[in-house]
Design a protein that fits this description.
The chain is an alpha+beta fold. 32% of the residues lie in helices and 32% in strands. The chain is built from six helices and eight strands. It has an eight-stranded mixed beta sheet, sandwiched between helices. A hairpin with a 4-residue loop joins strand 4 and strand 5. The two termini are 22 Å apart.
Length: 193
């Protein structure tokens, strides 16, 4: 089985949308990524400056140009200002499987934006043929666990002592929560009805 490529823009709720990253996001992206919590819990490098932003935009553009299924979207507000990033940084098209990744700028947290953004992205992925969407959350990142649980992901367990793989923990071994949504789950049925 294979999946199709996600659209370039997905409406979330009035005043919020997921869209392709663009160079005009540079200042907001760099400012948001100064937050140590982002690099602590994600693969976002620290320090984060113009070089890292250029790499981010180049990868996003290359994926679009190549028709790559892996996509990262900017979560933008009504003024088209970057609030965070949400997407599928790793996709296994032959298995119809994708890994969800996300982060929010500090000033955008606590408003339900991620929960709102993940639902239409999940719906889009299911409509395009994805069978399994999974998310890895480092043990200790309770806020990210709550987001996934509010959306309707199932907690499958904890993988113990994984390699940090570029996450802010350096070379330490880490424990990781695994969450997933599959087509048979109630959230998938609800989103597709």
């Amino acid at each position: 089985m294979s999946v199709r490529v996600l659209r370039d823009e997905i409406d979330v709720v009035p005043g919020l949308r997921l869209r392709r990253p663009k160079r005009s996001d540079t200042d907001a992206l760099i400012a948001a990524c100064q937050d140590p919590e982002i690099s602590r819990w994600t693969r976002t490098p620290s320090p984060y400056g113009a070089v890292e932003a250029d790499s981010f935009f180049a990868l996003a553009q290359q994926r679009c140009d190549d028709g790559d299924e892996a996509r990262t979207f900017v979560l933008a507000d009504a003024d088209d200002v970057l609030l965070g990033c949400v997407g599928f940084p790793r996709v296994q098209p032959a298995e119809a499987r994708a890994e969800l990744g996300y982060w929010l700028a500090p000033n955008a947290r606590g408003h339900g934006h991620l929960t709102a953004a993940i639902r239409p992205l999940l719906r889009e992925a299911l409509l395009l043929g994805y069978e399994r969407i999974e998310a890895e959350v480092l043990v200790g990142n309770d806020a990210s666990c709550r987001v996934l649980e509010r959306v309707g992901f199932t907690h499958e367990g904890v993988l113990r002592s994984l390699a940090a793989d570029g996450i802010g923990m350096g070379s330490a071994r880490i424990d990781v929560h695994i969450y997933s949504v599959i087509r048979a789950d109630p959230i998938a049925t609800s989103l597709l009805s």
